[in-house]
Fold each of these.
Amino acid sequence: MSKIDQYAVFGHPIKHSKSPRIHSLFAEQTQQQLSYCAQDVAADSFTTAVTEFFQQGGKGLNCTVPLKELAWQHADSLSDRAQFSKAVNTLALQADGTLLGDNTDGLGLVADLSINHSITLSDSRILILGAGGASRGIIAPLMEKSPAHIVIANRTVEKAITLSNEFSQLGDISACAYDEIKNSEFDLILNATSASLTGELPPLADSLLAKNGNCYDLAYGNEPTAFVKWGLAHGAEKSLDGLGMLVEQAAEAFFIWRAVRPETADIITLLNSERN
Ligand code: NDP
């Protein structure tokens, strides 16, 4: 067995994941000895792959699409935020051999919005597009920042309603279909759909974004996403993609595993420069 602590990200597809690069930059920066690789794992082989990974001495895992709900079920114990979101993106081996499940996506988003981009969340009117796993992970951390209200719009409206009901004890949150928000205005629109991955856009009314409002696509790519372009075309003060969130959620996972917090700013700058 290797003496270097082993970490990995499991997902499908996983080939283009930036996580191995980000974690190796964190390890170099914090002088931690570890290895981190990406492994293509489909949902039906998840349990076997996780068991093998930890039996072979693995210390921690990230789980991405389509495995976050399975990871939530697999964990022996859950952080409060993971419990709430019903999705786990980080598994950490504990001293007693059990697996702790956590979800660092929401913290990553909030850090990128509020620290890296100085976007105010308190008292703001927030629209979340999409009601999948990513939306589940971001609602509680956003609510902690006391927004005026959160509206979730989704193609399959029932999923948005379920989500809104699950989080209603945390603050003012509601759900609707896209055509029901055409006369509303929001200070921040978060695209948590996977539409950008295929170059598509949810059906958005032209008047949705308030003056000086901001847009943020959780998805990212080498080119601006369709939603980032939509934000720019509709007067967004900032229209950003999710690369910063990716680095911030990774930093939080690194901290859970290693008890050392990497500096993210230089790494975000480096990754941004690599896609220009
Ligand atoms: P899910 O598959 O769980 O959910 C996808 C959501 O997108 C659903 O609400 C679905 O609607 C909606 N959707 C898909 N296609 C369209 C479309 N053409 N028009 C309108 N709505 C659409 O995905 P996740 O929640 O896990 O991920 C969502 C996005 O967030 C992805 O782009 C992912 O890469 C990104 N992400 C980024 C992270 C980061 O660190 N930057 C972290 C986590 C996620 P319906 O319910 O009707 O099917």
Amino acid sequence: MADAPAPAPRRGNPNGTILPLTGNKTRTPPPPRGLDAVFRPRSIAVIGASTRAHSIGGNLLSNLFRSGFTGKIFPINPHASVLHSVKCYPTVGAVPDEVDCAIVSVPKEHVLEVVADCARKGIRGLVVITAGFKEVGAAGAELERRLTELVRRKGMRMIGPNCMGVINAEPEYSMDATFSPTPASYGPLAFASQSGALGVAILNVAQSLKLGFTQFVSMGNKANVSSNDMLTYWEDDPRTRIIALYLESFGNPRRFVEIARRVTKKKPVLVVKSGRTVAGARAASSHTGALAASEVAIDAVLEACGVSRSDTIEELFDLASALASQPLPQGDRVAILTNAGGPAIMATDAVIQQGLRLAELSAGTRRKLAAFLPPEASLGNPVDMIASASDVNYGRAAKILLADRGVDAVLVINVTPVLYGPRTVWDALMAATSGSKKPVLSVFMANEAFYDEARSMPAHPPIYRFPEPAARVLAEMWKIGRWQKKPGGTFRRFRMRSTAIRRILARRKRRGGGYLDPDDAFNLLEAAGVPVARPAYVRREMDLPRRAREVGYPLVLKASGEKIVHKSDVGGVTAGIRDDAELAAAVLRMKTDLARHGALAQLEGFILQREAAGREIVVGATNDPKIGPLVMFGLGGRYVEIFKDVKFVLPPVTREEVLDALSRLKAGVLLSGVRGERPGDREFLVETVLRICQLTADFPDIAEMDVNPLFIAARGRRGVAVDVRVRVSGRDDVSHAG
Ligand code: ADP
Ligand code: MG
């Protein structure tokens, strides 16, 4: 019979069910609750089990046997009496024992009735493998809604539908409830994958890297259990040291941020978020039926909560396997140890490019190295032991570098020389560095035979083929370490004139939303506590000189008109006007310019504004339908769109987070006073960003706003907003659920 591999011989009881090997008849553990019912069951029913090889139901059953599940297994199939030498039941209701978890793999028409059976049986955990739900359209979505509702009403927890199953590799459970051909070993990684197909690839990569799991879960449509639930489940699990997620969508991004911010302080959370490109996003929506949120928003979300984002599964595993075997660096100073010059230059470039530094080796370290290295060796950093470097010397030198207090991490590079095979170098290196409190990453540029050999070695630290990925991993590890140590920061609330803000927004809202009148926009900003250079509107040209004296020179003249959106684009802004004569000339010139741009007919009047000085910054906000308010700031003025030097933050944010984002802006240096200039008032910018965060979080009717520019004056002098646009959400906007 062409069947799945035979299960290992087990003790059977008279019913044909399997007794747990570690079972203790006198003391039965209490029934597992919550997600434990799925991941830590005492007994599993496989509904839709079969012995047909290469069938999903067949693989599910044989994987449970192959993995050596420590609990009881009950195959359910009305058309069989025995499967894999185990008694088979027609329904879960017919099983004489208690059942904690059901793996459901029946045609989709039967899923609801089967789940209802499970509920009656008192089953608390469900893994629904069956596909044909939300991902196939409206009818499927309706079926999924009914399934989810049933599961929720009965207080069950469900993985899926449309998934590949779950694994708990902890030795107490040893449960592989997937139909994956590749098994998983036990280790420190917890993995949730939104794609089932990718799940198999993930298990394959993990196997080849000897990286083991606590739990692995293919999430499917996430109808009941979400990635957020999994994060929470793993947050305090002592055996899970690294959490990895492959995501196609965020169910509730705001909640994700809340949870991830907390979890990442305790253990690394690595994410591959697919749908980076527009085409990818479209594929994601047809694949799991999820709408991928906009890209910048996602990056902001992940950055805001200390998650390490990888572009590919390969990158994620590069990092995960380093985290599994190496401690986090305590600083950014890297020592490079090599036997060849070229790769050392590559490594140096990669280290610098990743924002790390080359360590300054101490005199003592150099002396110790000089004692046994040949005179041709280079004792600076990189330490080049030249091609004759022996395996023993690799070990010795690495140990000396690790002992240097100015070194936070060691990057070892070995190009296979003539005399020493990579394997002996590797062994010497491992013997010398294992257990080190500082990370050691290794790049071996060897032939395929070595990598093949490495695959058959017992679990070991990662071996990179090139310096670049190793440097990237080190940089990520440093980022993780820094994040974990970073103090939480403080959330500050500002006093605002809320009634005034509410009134302005309500008035626009009653008229169906849209852009606020310029006056209202300035009023709103002022009510939020942001200083503005109040514009004076002048309808008649003849009134200009009188009003100009009220505003005070030097001033700026701007064209005003409802249709004139970007004033400077049509010649509608003149700055630096010092007196009446200059004003008159500016008016003439502006009218000519407007005419040239075909905008003269749109001119309804003029704006006079006090001239501001300093650095031009943009602070804006947008209310993303999925994520809620996102606040952006960066290089402002007319070049916003050209340089795109901006950062997003996600309210609520702390002062420290804003400062951190600011330090990652290229324009950040503009505030620190370049070449003898007085440094800009950074504190004013930070406060303004925090105020806009609070404003948009408290008043979700603000669909979009742009303060551009906000002038940042020299430290100690007041900055001002000189141009503000605010759009109020209306009937056409999708409201977000908060
Ligand atoms: P728009 O964005 O519609 O073109 P702005 O009011 O933002 O119009 O003005 C455009 C540019 O003119 C600003 O980026 C800034 O360089 C300059 N500017 C505008 N108002 C002032 C002001 N009050 N003081 C100094 N410069 C100003
Ligand atoms: Mg502007």
